[in-house]
């Protein structure tokens, strides 16, 4: 028996990446579509998968990893829809329906961060770790988690970015960049927060800049909350801000310092380099996340939500 | 086919409660044993279950819900042991082994808070809610969670009490009561913290005392972290401090205020009274938690870790 072939659709704000394959080392077709109106964009994606199906063979399932917020409640009549988004035309757009109707295969939908968590768990930095958390620190801060083999969903998708952390006001009078909460984690530590606090983007700030000590501390406070609530076996931290390579080691030191020996596990001492890690799939995490969600949509795997 | 009968063993610091039954409305035998040395105490518990087995019929499985910290790693040779505890004689005590060897039935072990989470999910305030979180605010603060039908374990048991929340220093100069972190959530909001900050125990402070506004705020900050990371479908908050009945409504108001409309779900507006709730099983949550863990130890249910 040959391995089933899956389709992955990564829906991002500026582009949609579609791929067909079985995993990171076996991508058999790929295309990039600029994100325009939902009908045109999804139509072009469907055409790509239909072409593959007609010319090269069956696709077992399609996974969609999308910007959100999304309706991921399996009991909802609008499961697989975007809910509200400032992106013109995409509010209440049905992502899953057009793909499923056109291709007639199971369709899985999840957030881009949950997709990345599943992909990193399957093929990358999260292998063997359950629970596993993937956190991205870019313009905003978002997280995804895999628990008991499946992406975590709850009342809403847990986004992780909007938790409250102690704000070091004497050192950092910046009020925070979050329009809802001001100085939540995202408001204090996102790329947007860095740019507004210092008047320069993260990539322009040298290693000795005081921005980085503050950034490492805030991110570590967020990680400590994740550790306290979910106790993941590993956490991958990616996103644009983390491209500053000296940041991750600083975050690790702050995490160890904040835990203060309370949790007596080797991972929180000498093993911290293997506990708080960089993602392994890089820019590919999005479309590979979509592929991994598709793999989970095939009966028996059960690692993702699928259309009924 | 009649419903299987389970045994539950709640191991607390001062007493061990053992029960046999199928659920809260069908407890067929019960006993309370003062917590002494582990050998004597577990021996008395085993004798209780053996008597039931001999005189009244089979017990399908035994669940143990215990004070911790516990080794809950199924791959560990000391699974089901207490790890370190200040309680004399109980450090590295094997809880599961003596019970399993004497009775020859599957044995499930988990923390008391995870047991309570499973019991409240099965029979009480958490029915139909997954993920579900049970938080207890007493001398300390501890939490348990049920995700995808099973108690949550990770690298360590997620305890929830030691996350960092913003400390309102101008209003609250109290440095915090946690010996590890000072002003973590437990350090600021546990019963111990209240007693040390105000020089009087929680139950002695009247409703108009400034303690309560501060307490509601800190607990709400903890709940917001739990919501951000785990997105439970419901949270039950119990423990001695919550017996002050005006506290829960205050906590709810603070949670809504802190979320600030960012998460647009009815539960976080008009539905908050059904989202942050009091436990339903009261003092029975401990031994019922042990029973619920036993129910999960029977093959096919899969809702608890069992001895291999």
List keywords for this structure.
homodimer, 308 residues, alpha/beta, five-stranded mixed β-sheet, 9 helices, globular
Description:
The structure is a homodimer of 308-residue chains. With 308 residues, chain A is an alpha/beta fold. The first copy, chain A, has helices at 38-56, 96-103, 112-123, 185-189, 191-198, 210-230, 247-259, 272-275, 285-297, and strands at 6-11, 15-23, 26-34, 61-66, 107-111, 132-137, 141-147, 150-151, 234-238, 276-277. Chain A has a five-stranded mixed sheet with strand order 3-2-1-4-5, with helices on both faces. A five-stranded mixed sheet of chain A has the order 8-7-6-9-10, sandwiched between helices. The radius of gyration of chain A is 20 Å and the shape is globular. The model of chain A is unreliable at 301-308 (pLDDT under 50). Chains A and B meet through strand 7 and helix 6 of A and strand 7 and helix 6 of B.
